[in-house]
């Protein structure tokens, strides 16, 4: 009813507009996704639609009949009031009839990018000023993602070219260093050749990780039994853990849990997380790898009781090239996160506390569980 009264106050009389057309117009204004805010010559709000409530965070009761300044920053309110007063006196305006992008504010003080279209109407010798406001937050985020994708694609091409040019000379240097190692008996020469060989391996590993990050390749998904994959990984890492006096425990669901994933890439992610856990725990520490199923998803957790991640580093730990390791590249966790999130419906997350350890979780949708029963999503796809 408030919108209807406000519409009536700003709608110019017209013999051509019947009650049905006016009702359609009122409904359109109330239900559009754009925020409609109309003020009179006194800078008082006379129209504030449902979208305006959502965009600005104020209810109609809070703003109707009050000064527009209630939803504006003090400086903006003053400038806007001056512009309205100037237009009332001169009928001259800069922004009326044009779209303007600016930063607006919500009730809690949060700012957001907005596109605002200004218009003015004269009814019964009184002026009414309307702003149609579109929240650009989602649009800006999408544009940012597109720009980031384009940047990564360009960097991926550059990395591919650099890798091609560097890899062969590196292999030659490493090969010659290993040949000389086998032939040399001079301890000083052997030490220097070992340094060369280790640095070549490090650079080759870095090139490989750069390629994986910027050119992840096509996923080759297949149906994988989670327990079987974890058993393979257990056999692979157990010797290294025993050698380092680290207790590693694998616990899995007894019944078969089938997921649709790229086997090699998923194995790469889990091995990388276990490797990180091994490096984080001290001698006598422990690592637990578990899998659980709930609500159609399997959760694979890698838990360690190591040093943990400092609070100041947690926000950056998944960012490319951030590392706290002496010889780390800072790409392992970024690549792991990218691989998991490239699987539809999957997520990658972690928690950590200094002195208590870290938990990394891989969550993926289940295709088949409980002795071969398909979940509802898979049934729908195959029916």
Walk me through the structure:
There is one protein chain. By secondary structure, the chain is of the alpha+beta class. It has three domains: 2-135, 2-Layer Sandwich (Beta-Lactamase); 140-214, Signal transduction histidine kinase, dimerisation/phosphotransfer (DHp) domain (Helix Hairpins, Orthogonal Bundle); 221-382, Histidine kinase-like ATPase, C-terminal domain (Heat Shock Protein 90, 2-Layer Sandwich). The chain has helices at residues 2-10, 19-31, 50-56, 60-63, 74-90, 137-183, 187-214, 226-243, 263-280, 311-314, 332-341, 376-382, and strands at 35-40, 45-48, 99-105, 111-123, 126-135, 221-225, 247-251, 258-262, 286-294, 297-304, 347-353, 357-369, 373-374. The strands form two sheets. Strands 6, 7, 8, 9, 10, 11, 12 and 13 form an eight-stranded mixed sheet that branches. A five-stranded antiparallel sheet has the order 2-1-5-4-3. α6 runs antiparallel to α7 (187-214), α8 packs parallel to α9 (263-280) and α9 packs antiparallel against α11 (332-341).
In short:
With about 375 residues, the protein is α+β, with helices and mostly antiparallel strands.
Major pleated sheet = 8 strands, mixed
User: So, the CATH homologous superfamily of the largest domain?
Assistant: Histidine kinase-like ATPase, C-terminal domain
Structural class: alpha+beta
Q: In CATH's first tier, which class of the largest domain applies? A: Alpha Beta
SSE run: HHEEHHHEEEHHEHEEHEEHHEEEH
Tally of individual helices: 12
| Residue share in β-strands | 15-25%
Q: What is the number of E strands?
A: 13
Bulk shape: elongated
